[in-house]
Structure formats: C-alpha cells, structure tokens
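Input for the complex:
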Amino acid sequence: MKMNIKKILKPSFWKIVSVIIVTLGIVSTYLRFTRGLGATTNLQDSVPWGLWIGFDFIGVGLAAAGFTIAATVHIFNIHKYESLVRPAILTAFLGYSIVVCLLLVDLGRPENFWHPLVMWNVHSVMFEITWCIICYSTVLILEFAPVILQKFNLKGPIKLLKIFSIPVVIAGVLFSTLHQSSFGSLYLIVPGKLHPLWYSSWLPVNFFISCIAAGLSMIVFESYLIARGCTKEQGFCNTGLKINILSGAAFVIWIALIAGLLLKIYDFVDNNKLYYLTIPSMETALFYLEIIIGTIVPIILLSNKKLREDKKWLYIISICVISGLILNRLNVSITGLVSTSGINYFPSFDEISITMMLVVLAIFVFRLIAKNFPVFINEESGHSENNIVSSGTQQIILGE
Amino acid sequence: MLNEKGLLFDVTLCIGCGACYKACKEENNLENTSNDFLKDHLSNNTFTVIEQYNDLYTRKQCMHCNDPACVSVCLVGAIRKDKTGAVVYDEDKCIGCRYCMQACPHNIPRYEWGTTQPRIRKCNLCVNLVNSGGLPACVEACPTEATMFSDKNQLIKIAKKRLKDNPEKYYQHIYGLEEVGGSHVMVLSPVPFEQLGFVSHLPKKPMPDFTAQAMEKIPSVVVSGGVFLAGMYWLTKRKNKIAKEEKNYSKN
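Predicted:
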C-alpha cells in the first residue's frame, strides 16, 4: 500500500495539469454558487445559453456510441463488436455525468432540479429531454452494473439483470433516439433567431445522424489513444487495436456522414437556402469549416478502403468527425444566434474552468474504473464471463 | 375568448411623457434603473420601456401571446396563461433553465443574473389588479389614452375602425393581431413597424406549432422503433442459431 501511495504522489506533467485544472474548477464552482450566474458567466439577457449548454450538446452527441454499439451487439447480434460495448457504455455514462453536472451548474435554481419529476409540461421539448436523460442514465447504469457486480462475484443480481437485458437495451436505444434528436428540436421554436444555414425543420434528424457518426468516432479515437498509451498498465491488457473492428465502425461512420450530407443538400435545395452559401460572413465561414472538416474530408478519406484499414488514418478521421460535431453544436447553440442577438458571446474564465474540470474528472474516473473493473475484454472471453471473475482481484487500485 | 382582455397601444397618440413607465415601476416595486426613461432598456427591473424614433414614441413590453412560445417550452409549467389572457410566471416552480428567454419571438423575458435566487422578470399585465376589477397600472396612468385596456374583441374592432377611418394617418397593419398566432397586446403605428424596432416578418402561426410538428412524431417513433428492434433481435438471433446448427451439422 505504501508503494501505491508513493506512486500516486509521484508528479508527472499530466498529473500537475489535472490538479491545477481541478483546483481552478472547484474555486469557480464555489464562486458560481455563492455569487450567481451574472458574476461568473458572460451570459446575459440576449445570450441566455452559453458554453455550458453548448457543451451539453457536445457531451451527449459524443456519448452516442453507448446506444449504437449496444444495439449492434445485443439487438443485431453482431458479436464481433462485443469488446467495444463496455468502453462505449462507460464513455456514455461519464459523458452523461458531465452533462448532468453542467446542467446543475447552469440552472438558475439548481435546488429545484427535481421539479420536472412532479411538475409536467408534456408540450416542452426540454421536458422530454429531461426525462429521456434520466431514463437513459438509468439504462446505462443497468447495462454497466454487471461489470461491477462481476468484480465482487455477485452472481444473483447478474442473473436477474440478464433476464431484462434485451428490453433494457431496446429502451436505451429508444430513449437515445428521442433525446439525441430532441436536442435539435429545442431550436425548432426559434426560426427567426437561428441563422438559416443551421435552422431547418430537419434539425432533429440532423442531430440524430451526426451523433451516430461522432459517437462511433469517439470510440475509434479513444481506442487509439488507449492502445497507444495504456497497453502496459493494469486493466488495459486487452486494449490492443483490432483493426477489423475499427474499420467496421469506420464504415458505419462513412455511411452516416454521407446520409447527413445528402440530407443537408436536400434541405438547402428544397428550402432555397443555397444562396446563403455565397454570402460572405462569419456564419458562412464557420459553416464551411464545419462541413469541410466534419463531413467532406472524412467522407473522402473513408471512401478509400486502404485508409479505412489504417489505424493512424482512422485516428485522424475520427478527430475530424469529432471536431465537426463540436463545431456544429456550438454553431447551433452559440454562433448561429449571434447575428440576431447582436452580442458577441465568449465564455468567461469560470465557465471554461468548470467545464474543463468536469472533463478532467471524467477522464480520471474512466481510468480508475478501467483499472479496477473488466472494461476491456477480448471478444472470446466476453462470452464466457466466468473467466474474468476468477482472475479479478478484490483490491481496488487508485490513481496512476 | 369571452373574458379575455387586451391592451391596445396607439403610437399616434403617445406623447412620450413616461407616465406608464413610472406607474409600472411603482406598481411592481421595481428599482430605479435610469434617470432618463427614454434611454432605458427592458431589464429585470424594467417591464415596459418607451422608445423614441424621431418624433414618434413607442412602447415595448410582453405581448402576451395567444399561444405563447414561453408557456409551451417551460418544462415545469412555471409560465402559464391566466384566464384574462395574461402570460404569468410562477417563481416557485421555475428551475432557471432560461428556455423561455431563448424561445420568445419578441425577446421579452429578462433574468435576475445578479442574484443566487434568480427569477424571470417581465410584464404580467397587472393580473392581480385586473382580476380584482382594476386596470393595469400603465393604462391607468396614460393621460392620452394611447394605451387602452378592454375586452380583446372590442379592441380589435376599435383598431380596425381607426385604420379604416384614417387611412392616411395609419400604416395599415395591426401589429400583434396575427403575429405568431396573435397576442393580447396590439399596436397601431403611422409607419411600418420595423422602423420602430418591432420584430418584423414573424410567422403567422403560433411558435409552439414549430415544435409540435416534431413532438407529435414521438409516439410513432417509440412504437415502430420498439417493434423494429425487437424484431431484429429475434431475426438475427435465429439467423445466428441456424448458422451454428448448420456448422455443427456439416462437421458431423
């Protein structure tokens, strides 16, 4: 144990950076709750939603692999992707944890967070999203619970969960479909405010398709980073990149990107919006940036079968798609509204530091769980779960 | 519609005296925010403003829409329509998501950014005064009847009559009659409304309709999605099983 503590305290670059970010984040959080939103954020009457809400859209979008991969393996019974299920669900769960924390920070009256449970307005998209997020987080906990229970060798509850596993996965896919698209529906009510480059009655469908591509890209991105950095650490022994799995995911990303692009083209032609593409403005530039980086470049690269099977190229492509989603969500939630609000919003220090703190904490928890629980498993051993149970030690490993 | 009240503001009659502005502050116990009321803006302490455009004065305040965006988006139902037609806010329900501010087509709701117990702030058409038989404070204070309060249908008739009787005096449009499905506040003006800073080119259908088009698809997505997923599960499982059996069979 002494060795362990020494090891934890041994400084490294990333440890120091993380500690600084978390410390600043804690201070900012304290200020936010003692001084209010006005003193700590750059939000104002004409910009009621800022970085935190934008980041919620990003977090939920990037966590989408949780339902797509669970559906692929458990509903479509394609067991090749079994080894991605647990990392995807853990990523999704941590993504949603960030989202919920940020929402609580963003709410003007966080102490009333429970009101939507008892005060209903079924006409509100926000109401639907709130319920879907609550239900889907529960689904994610149920889907991940067997991993925790396995470690402690609790076979009874695992059996019980297994009986309900398929309905739970189906419910998870439905909840995800609804709220992923509903984040787009939130903006259907502001046709006069959101820039026509982004406003469309297809917004919910756009959001849904883009989250499928970006969620899978997130898993490709993660797999690459983990394989590069952590293969030798405990708990990460089965993280070697399996290129046939990743290129399968890349193919789905490709299809989703093409579908998204075709829908955008249809929307622009159908609603006579093409001339907006020729108006020189900040919005047009950002729109081109989003489409070229997030859609067109990845589509071209992925159409080459050789690149689809090269892990380094897949890594680069995944970064493109993820950047595309981040740009898209920020454009819809912030930049697309600038021209009507007339205010150039840029997040304050406290807004940024709280967001960064939550991201750092999520990465920390991910590593902690991956080290202590069988998150990364082989395709083969995934089926016979008993193997892992016997090999798992009862010791909980902390830190690095 | 029978009991529904409305407010008609006629730009041609307004002399820019500021009586409505002061009365509103007094009635709602709002802090003084500016020494010159003509330069003030809507804020958490200002529910109505008078704006000057050359020699014309106009008022801005909550329009009290017939089918308000803010009411439809509020997930806890903290904003609702009163029986008088006023759009009223209940601070005890509000969780502070500020979707109402984002959704309002007229950009009216303001927020108390400076406190840790913030509220949404806007005109409530003096709903308590009206429900006890009185007039809204701004109407009571107006010396020229530029702001009138009455049954909504009555006001529409008056407005239409004014437009018809004095076509040279008025721009032929009642702002608020059809905008976003109509509202309980209506405005008459001698010039086009965009010249007075009103949000123009608003759709005629109520804003909640835009969301409803997507929301009404939810039940069918859930049902067809559920059936599809369950079906796919059954099919693919069966396919895998048959493939396995065939493999075993060919081995034997």
